[in-house]
């Protein structure tokens, strides 16, 4: 039996897809991590749109966003919604969000995200090939939909930023669009095909597969509620849970939207907000969809899954504790009907999850500067699935002492 007494005790806080990918890469290296999965298991990972988008380097805060925020906030059916009771709580984050839209910060964010997302599809396939589950990946590209050239022109800055970072795009007229997706409403006359993007056909099964891989490789997953990170002087000593202390030499904080609450007692204030996202799942939509679609005027993703058609989107900033807003979820059906007027919605189910979002859209990754033995891996926003596999590879390699060719400085928690 292998002697692991001289190996570091590593605890990963968070059993979503990011934490699981970190744990998988640690376990692959024989480091036997313990993953602490909250009892609200996979709060964001199971319900995402499934998009794997290495070219999504444009942050949410782009130049001109200040003009759009008031209108979106006042429109209860808009893509961004903040309940009146939460406006004061959200104001500091929103101010940082608007400040992040300066051209210099947008370029810096795009550079950071481009470095992180490089090769993300291959990183996912690396894990799934080892676990015998490559059927989870669909490589049919993704498509942005537009009603006309004027609508497409509104995305010019974002598209140019993506293009400059190497994203391959194919411009489609109505005939070419209809040839690929014949069920789309005639109102959409233009499209951009992203042939190198991919998707996951079942994000919930993906988390299960990666979790099984962690166990297969010698790691452990426990269902507990984490209370705090225990310190010994200036370094991590363990994790306090509702079932007691779990000793650790290294702690990876990958608790998604809950991560800032665990950093605050350490004197580190991270402006982490939850984007409450919704989806509707249709078991028998009556329409055939070949790839992930994103209509520019509706700000949603329409994704073919192995168990039906999913429409996901909406940004609701209302905190971690408010109950789901069923009306926000139902709005997604209107978005879906705009693209597929004949879609069948009988039997649709609703989901809401918390996407951890920083004002500049750049996640917090790497070791803390002020405390030894604590690593961060959270804040990927709506790109958690995209960023999960490369984050796992980078953090896993770094903890194992392999010194990956990657600069963690732009991702540091102390940048705020």
In short:
By secondary structure, the chain is α/β, with parallel strands linked by helices. The protein is built from twelve helices and 21 strands. The radius of gyration is 21 Å and the shape is globular.
What is the helix fraction of residues, given as a range?
Answer: 25-40%
Strand order of the largest sheet: 10-2-1-14-21-20
Summing up helix and strand content along with how strands pair, one would put the structural category as alpha/beta
- The share of residues in extended strands comes to 15-25%
Largest sheet: 6 strands, mixed
State Rg.
21 Å
Termini separation comes to 46 Å
Our count of helices gives 12
Tell the overall outline.
globular
Mean pLDDT: 93
Which stretches are poorly predicted, pLDDT < 50 over at least 5 residues? none
User: How many individual β-strands?
Assistant: 21
Provide a descriptive summary of the structure in words.
With 416 residues, the chain is of the alpha/beta class. The radius of gyration is 21 Å and the shape is globular. Strands 10-2-1-14-21-20 form a six-stranded mixed β-sheet, with helices on one face. Strands 4, 15, 17, 18 and 19 form a five-stranded mixed β-sheet that branches. Strands 7-8-6-16 form a four-stranded mixed β-sheet. The mean pLDDT is 93. 31% of the residues lie in helices and 25% in strands. The N and C termini lie far apart (46 Å). It is built from twelve helices and 21 strands.
């Amino acid at each position: 039996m292998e002697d692991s007494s001289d190996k570091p005790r590593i605890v990963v806080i968070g059993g979503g897809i990011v934490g699981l990918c970190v744990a998988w890469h640690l376990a692959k290296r024989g480091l036997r991590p313990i993953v602490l999965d909250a009892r609200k298991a996979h709060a964001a990972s199971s319900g995402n749109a499934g998009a794997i988008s290495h070219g999504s380097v444009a942050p949410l805060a782009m130049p001109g966003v200040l003009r759009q925020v008031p209108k979106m906030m006042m429109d209860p059916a808009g893509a961004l919604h903040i309940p009146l009771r939460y406006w004061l709580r959200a104001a500091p984050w929103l101010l940082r969000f608007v400040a992040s839209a300066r051209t210099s910060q947008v370029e810096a964010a795009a550079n950071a995200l481009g470095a992180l997302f490089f090769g993300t599809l291959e990183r996912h396939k690396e894990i799934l090939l080892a676990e015998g589950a490559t059927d989870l990946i669909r490589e049919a590209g993704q498509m942005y939909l537009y009603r006309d050239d004027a609508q497409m022109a509104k995305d010019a800055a974002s598209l140019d930023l993506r293009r400059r970072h190497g994203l391959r795009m194919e411009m489609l007229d109505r005939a070419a669009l209809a040839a690929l997706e014949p069920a789309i409403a005639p109102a959409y006359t233009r499209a951009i095909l992203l042939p190198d993007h991919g998707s996951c056909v079942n994000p919930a099964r993906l988390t299960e597969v990666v979790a099984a891989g962690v166990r297969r490789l010698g790691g452990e997953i426990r269902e507990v509620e984490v209370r705090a990170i225990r310190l010994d002087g200036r370094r991590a000593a363990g994790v306090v849970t509702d079932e007691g202390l779990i000793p650790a030499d290294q702690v990876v904080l990958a608790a998604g939207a809950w991560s800032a609450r665990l950093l605050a007692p350490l004197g580190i204030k991270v402006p982490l907000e939850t984007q409450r996202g919704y989806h509707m799942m249709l078991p028998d939509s009556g329409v055939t969809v070949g790839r992930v679609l994103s209509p520019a005027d509706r700000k949603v993703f329409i994704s073919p899954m192995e168990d039906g058609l999913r429409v996901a989107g909406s940004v609701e900033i209302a905190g971690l504790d408010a109950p789901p807003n069923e009306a926000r979820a139902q709005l997604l059906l209107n978005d879906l009907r705009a693209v597929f007027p004949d879609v069948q919605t009988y039997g649709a189910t609703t989901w809401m999850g918390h996407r951890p979002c920083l004002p500049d859209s750049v996640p917090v990754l790497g070791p803390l500067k002020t405390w030894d033995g604590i690593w961060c891996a959270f804040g990927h926003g709506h790109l958690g699935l995209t960023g999960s596999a490369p984050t796992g590879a980078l953090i896993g390699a770094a903890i194992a002492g392999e010194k990956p060719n990657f600069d963690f400085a732009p991702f540091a928690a102390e940048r705020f």
